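Course assignment 3, question 2. Fill in each field.
Student: A.L.
Task: Predict the tertiary structure for the chain below.
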Amino acid sequence: MTLILASQSAGRRAMLNAAGVPHDAMAAGVDEDAAKASLRAGGISARDLADALAELKAVKLSRRHPAALVLGCDQTLALDDGRLLDKAPDRAAAAAQLRALSGRTHSLYSAAVIAEGGEAVWRSVDRAKMTVRPLSDAFIDDYLDMDYANAAGCVGCYRIEGPGAQLFSRVEGSQFTIIGLPLLPLLDYLRIRGMLTS
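Answer field:
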């Protein structure tokens, strides 16, 4: 049996590799922006949005590879007032996002769904609470000079496994969840399925 990660995320691939999980990675081929807009129009919560997008990716790729276990993942970020942030399209938007996060606590949801034969067969959603210290404009500029190329594709424009760690005064939750995958529940499921030794 093969595990296919329906993502090109370097962070998720690195987690799976570090945990010794053999896998292939392929783009899911999902129009995420259109799917997200449609789901948000229905008033979906940040948690359920991450779950729905992860399922969409897993199921779509699973239909092309029905014999494999296909892992779809997604992350959403909700500010303490409930507003959702998307990936910033450019550096100016990234700076604006970091100013919006400054001095506040947000929730980061990471969802993982496995599909087999075109149907979702397993799912996990985890939440981390992230408190960003007050950030000066000078720090934001320096931080983006240092890590924008790596963090540009990340919701919230940070990678906690890199210089983004400097943004935070407090973090509650799993490091795996923050990087983008509820890894420990996934490993449990892969052991149940016989892909990993129990």
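Instructor remarks: The mean pLDDT is 95. The two ends are 16 Å apart (CA to CA).
Grade: pending
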